Amino acid sequence: MKRRLAATAALLACLSAAAQERELYIRGGFNGWGTDNLLAPKGKGIYEADILVSPGNHAFKVGSRDWGDEWVADANQSVTVAPGTSYRLETQPGPEDYLFVRQTGTYRFTVDASNPAAPLLRVARLETPQAAAAADPHAGRRATASLQWPTWDGRQETARFSSPDVDSELRRYTHSTTMNLRDPGPQHSEYAEQSGLPRIRTGNLAFDALFALAGAEMRLDSVSQIRDGNYNGGAAIACECFATGEKWHYVWTRDLSYAADLGLALLDPQRVRNSLDFKLSGWRKGLPIAPQVAGKGGAGEDGLQIVQDTGSGGSWPVSTDRVTWAFAAEETLRTLAASERAPFAKRALRALSNTIENDRIAAFDRETGLYMGEQSFLDWRDQSYAAWIPNDLASMSSAKALSTNVGHYQALNLAARLAREHGDPARARRYEAWAASLKRAINAQLWLPDAGMYSSLTAGHFDGAPMHKFDWLGQALAIITGIADDERARSILARYPHGPMGAPVIWPQQPDMPVYHNRALWPFVTGYGLRAAAQAGNVAVADAAYESLVRGAALNMSNMENLEWLSGQPLLLDERNPSLIGPVINSRRQLWSVGAYLGMVIENVFGVSVTDDGIRLQPFVTARLRREMFGAADDITLHDLRLHGKRIDVRLRLPAASRDDGYYAVERVLVDGKPAGRTIRLDRLGARNDIEIVLGKLVPGQQDIRRVNDDPYAPHGATFGPREPVIAALQYRAGAATLAIAPGGAGQDVVYSVYRDGKRVADGLSAGAWTDRTASATACYAVEARFAATGNRSHHSIPRCVDAGIEIPVTDPRTVSNLEPSPPNARFAAPHLAAWGQPGDRFAVERIDVAAPGTYQVQVRYHNAANQVNLGISGGVKWLAVKDAAGRTVAEGVVQLPHAPLSKAATPSVYSTPLAARLNAGRYRIEMSDFYNMSYLESNSTFSAAGGLTGPSNRFDIHGVRLLRVR
């Protein structure tokens, strides 16, 4: 104990020096977790940072640039700091602390290390003089316009626009708003149309200005250096790339990919290519790669593949949506000049092939035909998964998500086309067959006929049922990629709920969760919803998307990361429920929001999209858009669109405005005055081109839309689903299984459904006991709650299985390893193999006697504390093999051992993803060997935490193995 106290004192003694030498910062939601707010030394061990903080419930930590030092008030739970109160800091990682702010003001954060044994944090609000009333920024301008919208609470918000040089080729604009902005600053801004980017003239100054705003924000996100505190010691990395937003200074695979696909690849393909290339990586030099990777045809000599960013459970393959890279790559290949396209196409094929082959090994479920992994972009687990999932990320890993599977479908199709282009027809046929099979599986496994939509995700192992959870991105991507046929597309568009400000990214909402993915609309997802609506001809959904995108940009003076979905607010300040305030973080000029707005105008309004060898002209101008936005014009023009060295002007001739609803069909297309088709080859375009599209009759289209509404402050309103229930007990006797169902819902009448082996076997139950009289000795059960009034459903409970399983701890003499079990300690109550998993480590369990034949799920009982459950690149990924008495392999494959929570008390062990093995009665041996995770990639060699600077990390503590009979 004395030795431990001495070590702690020595660590704390370094605090004063560390704050100066390592440059500690206040990092939180108010500054994008960046390093803008240095704790400056004030002498005598005192460090201060004065920060202008807007209203909200802001998470924050004290941290160094590279997160090598991370200090919080309590390493086990979040603390909401009260201004004026001192808190002792713990100098170790832990949950974020919070500061609740009602009104924008300057707060002084003070770290007092004058007593190294007891460093203190104190936050105080500083008195600031009241600012004088601002002058009207539009005064004296002859060209002005305004846009107005009613608010959810009966008021009205207005955005105003003006230009001092309305007749100039490149205009300047002033933009103001009455809405309270998310971040501190003036209520007006100025920006200008950008040379080299297209501009529009629509007769509506406000609409023209908002397109210029998106172009200006695209240029602000165009950088020559990127940085993230977790990489390169927080120092800048040279890259002519797109940064992710005002508060996000790095390149993230999915953000970049969706942004490029929505619009950026059309306008700056070279910068998109650079950014895409930054998200590719090969193996670290000199690293031994498991033969299961190299021997399956997917790794290649250098292992070049798409990077899955840091995240849930330690990244890939808990998350597998790195394949979204293919959306951006396809658009970039269409827009790059031929000389630049050829080398990128070759590199893209190699990276896609390696990624596809490795994902097929590590994340493909042959039984369902679907890929496993977290939902694409919805990567804050507690926001869109069951409350128990962060404690059991293996169950999230084994679930199948619609959006991620659509990403795999896109990657397979693009790789097939590139393989055919590069003279590899066998590889092309392989990927085409996989894509066709995947499309069938998505429609067979995820389509819910009673809902008329695709399930967003299935439950994980031991359940596997598609749940009545829905997300707008997945539905829209299924339509756009052609996975959904016309009938299903119409059904989705008619049935996905829309609030008064637009469509939420998930449905129904999660109770007792703040706004971020939950209870939010994201403009980039709205952009995909618009694409899907235009493709399928749904006028009502398209109009909702147009209004949502224009309103969000106009009132916030920026293309924001996200908004609360029922009020459209960039921050819903709920003083009664501070823990529910959000969006938790929100950045201006978020890259994919910028891409969505640019794409809305160019692709949807003016109808210009790029094909493999030209452009397609398919505008979707609705009657409402015509009369409300372009009512003063007979034609609207897109000027100076540049593609493959050619300059294109597109003029839309508009019919008279109509009070009816519908969209205007294309009557004819003229190129330089000559008739043309709607698809034009590039070799038929000159250096300068005037394209005229004449719109004709009004087509009714589809008018169906599901409208919902609620009080945005209601914590358990009609737009929420219930919390998942719990199976409190499970008893099996003589062919009957009795479940004790503990309530999970609140606020409404709840009924329950029981699922056995992923199939619903009972519905409309009350909480309490229920008996399945046709149960088998291998059945696994899960329970779902449903609000009787709304029909909104919960996630499923933790599944429970009848079979107790064969459990073998590491202390069993049948366990064979190069490591000796460590004794119980403060963290673990049982012996374990500590930090097992170096490439040369051995682990096996032999002489396992199986008495009854059947299908068994083989799991490793473990704990992985390499990083927090939401961070890192060090999720355990290993190869598991089951061999019979003759040494023949009867089952093999990847198992995942994601990061797991730590506890101040004894930390419970968890189970890996299962390996299915069909076993006869007999004796077996289990062997575990190395595979790889994202820490094996060169791009992560400068990562600050586990798996980075000190080398790859694929290690965890092993407690034992389990064989569970499920059939």
Automatic annotation (TrEMBL):
Signal peptide limits: 1-19
Start and end residues of each Mannosylglycerate hydrolase MGH1-like glycoside hydrolase domain: 250-552
Q: Which Pfam families match?
A: MGH1-like_GH
Q: Which UniProt keywords apply?
A: Signal
Q: What is the protein name given in its UniProt record? A: Esterase
